[in-house]
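RECORD TYPE: inverse folding
INPUT: structure tokens
STRUCTURE:
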């Protein structure tokens, strides 16, 4: 895959996507959003890819936000299109049937935090700063942050972060539940690779079922979520991987899942 604002390595079960605009602290402009959308479309269709790791280039920022130079000159109609494109990308990542891990190093602000929130798991370096500071620019989150952050941490804490615009450090983000783990900056890549490597060995159908059951179950009544869980559980039990997993457990050996 050939991109101007990304680097993508999809040569094995763990695909690595890097937002590569370090001169702009990896800010999201129209072109980068489009390239991320195309990259995730391609990775979704690649059966060899089982996990995606998303990070920003350099050591200063995951993604520092949306590109303000583009936002400043937009008409309301153009702003609506920009918001919809960003939201579509975030939904594509949130709905991805393979785990997506955000490696958050440095700043994850505005659109950068919205991008991280769309990922399934978030690991942060201890120097990370996370927030939705759009109010300080006279605007509000436009890529889904007002919805995903409130669902993740509750409306009161989300409103505080959005209405004050003040970022939080990694330790606070961990306490709030915005990130799953915090590690030192020099250990972030190793910890992410360790997590991704474990997920890449999991049974793909079970992974898809868990991701779908949690994602869709939270948006509906409990009964609907339970029905979806039952349906996906039954699908898992039709696979060779289920037979391999249960057999390996009884034989006291490590399973080798093939995706069948």
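DESIGNED SEQUENCE:
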């Amino acid at each position: 895959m050939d991109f101007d604002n990304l680097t993508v390595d999809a040569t094995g079960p763990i695909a690595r996507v890097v937002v590569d605009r370090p001169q702009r602290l990896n800010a999201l402009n129209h072109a980068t959003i489009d390239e991320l959308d195309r990259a995730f479309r391609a990775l979704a269709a690649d059966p060899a890819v089982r996990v995606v790791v998303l990070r920003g280039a350099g050591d200063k920022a995951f993604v520092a936000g949306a590109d303000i130079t583009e936002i400043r000159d937009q008409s309301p109609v153009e702003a609506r299109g920009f918001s919809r494109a960003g939201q579509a990308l975030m939904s594509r990542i949130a709905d991805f049937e393979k785990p997506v891990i955000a490696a958050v190093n440095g700043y994850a602000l505005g659109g950068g935090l919205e991008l991280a929130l769309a990922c399934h798991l978030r690991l942060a370096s201890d120097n990370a700063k996370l927030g939705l500071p759009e109010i300080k620019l006279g605007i509000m989150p436009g890529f889904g942050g007002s919805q995903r952050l409130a669902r993740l941490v509750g409306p009161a804490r989300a409103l505080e972060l959005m209405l004050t615009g003040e970022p939080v450090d990694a330790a606070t983000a961990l306490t709030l539940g915005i990130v799953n783990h915090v590690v030192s900056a020099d250990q972030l890549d190793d910890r992410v690779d360790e997590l991704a490597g474990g997920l890449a060995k999991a049974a793909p159908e079970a992974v898809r079922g868990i991701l779908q059951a949690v994602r869709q179950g939270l948006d509906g009544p409990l009964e609907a979520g339970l029905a979806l869980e039952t349906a996906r559980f039954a699908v898992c039990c039709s696979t060779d991987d289920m037979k391999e997993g249960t057999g390996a457990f009884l034989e006291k050996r490590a399973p080798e899942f093939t995706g069948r």
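NOTES: Residues 204-250 form a domain with the Lyase 2-enoyl-coa Hydratase; Chain  A, domain 2 fold (CATH 1.10.12).
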